[in-house]
Amino acid sequence: MKSVGFTKSTMPEETRVALLPGDIENLRHPERLSFEQGYARHLGFPDDAYRRLGARVMPRREMARLDVLCVPKFSEKDRESLRDGMTLWGWPYVEDNRWCAEAVADRSLSIVDFQFMYEGGEFVFRENSRLAGRLGMLQAMQAGRPPEQLGSVAMIGKGSLAHGAMEVLDASGVRYSVFDSRSSGELLCSMHAFDTIVNCMKWYRPGYLVSQAHIESMKTGAFLVDLSTEGVEGSEPRSIYAPVYMNGHVMMYSNAHIPALLGKQASEQISRALAPYVDSVVEETPDTVLKGATVVADGKPTAAAGELARMALQAAARTISERAS
């Protein structure tokens, strides 16, 4: 059986954790689970809450000896906790983080990516995405422009993230037009016609969905709310407390850790969604959801990996080979 470690995120401003005590009670092997000291103390859950359920609590430095490391968001500081052959379980964004791609290739790591966990066609963490959509839209209206000043609005995307944003717009009485992957080309040709554009589209291909040229075609003073933080050139995630900035003549909103604004609620949603798969990971039993989310196996991209992740891992392997020679 596998041992699974849960560490606090080392990414600045990230408050979410992956598993809370209430969702461990029905698991078959709590003794195979280890939590970093102080894991969820900031959310009101002391270490003893995990110990009482049979889980172990240990210093971070001891996590490197475990088989699986589960963290919602990784950062380069996690590198010290990685060992050869380990599995990473979370949102590693290997396509965006060069250090992660190199660590994966160099240490033959495997990745089970939260982003690709789907069951019955439904995204496992859809409630976290819906929360991100609601919080992000609310923050964009508070820090950037109130609802009565959004003007004509275009929504890119129809997934859980977009539905969360739509709930806020509907409640605020804001009307909007919706574009998906099939109709996004129509929007890109008419960017100038909108005052506000909300991007909720996931982007797994090279290049950009919305280029800088598209942004330059927008009205002076237009507002681009990038909730997905993917596929928009010039979109640079800022502090969760100051996510609005100017990109030329266009106001931008970009916050890579939106659910961290409500860390406890977001962690509860992640924990409920994750718990049903923990026993399968520990027992190494076949699971179609986990298999479909295994984007890297022993340092090599699988058929489930997106094109950007595949390119990042290939580049990392070349870099490692050049260093060795």
Compact overview of the structure:
The chain has 9 helices and 16 strands. The chain is an alpha/beta fold and 325 residues long. The chain folds into 2 domains: 183 residues, Rossmann fold, CATH 3.40.50.720; 129 residues, Rossmann fold (3-Layer(aba) Sandwich), CATH 3.40.50.
Proportion of β residues?
A: 15-25%
Low-pLDDT runs of 5+ residues are none
**Cα gyration radius (Å):** 20 Å
Tell me roughly what share of residues is in helical segments: 25-40%
**Strands in their spatial order, largest beta sheet:** 3-2-1-4-5-6-15-16
CATH architecture of the largest domain: 3-Layer(aba) Sandwich
Oligomer: single chain
The CATH topology assignment of the largest domain is Rossmann fold
- Could you tell me the number of beta strands? 16
- Which structural category do the helix and sheet elements fall into? alpha/beta
Number of domains: 2
Largest sheet: 8 strands, mixed
Q: How would you sum up the global shape?
A: globular
Mean pLDDT: 94
Distance between the termini: 38 Å
H and E order: EEHEEEHEEEHEHEHEHEEEHHEEH
Q: Helix count, per DSSP?
A: 9
CATH class (first level) name of the largest domain: Alpha Beta
Describe this structure in words.
The protein is of the alpha/beta class and 325 residues long. The protein has 2 domains: 4-123 and 262-324, 3-Layer(aba) Sandwich (Rossmann fold); 126-254, NAD(P)-binding Rossmann-like Domain (Rossmann fold). The chain has 9 helices and 16 strands. The strands form 3 sheets. It has an 8-stranded mixed beta sheet with strand order 3-2-1-4-5-6-15-16. The protein has a 6-stranded mixed beta sheet with strand order 10-9-11-12-14-13. The relative contact order is 0.16. The model has no long low-confidence stretch (mean pLDDT 94).
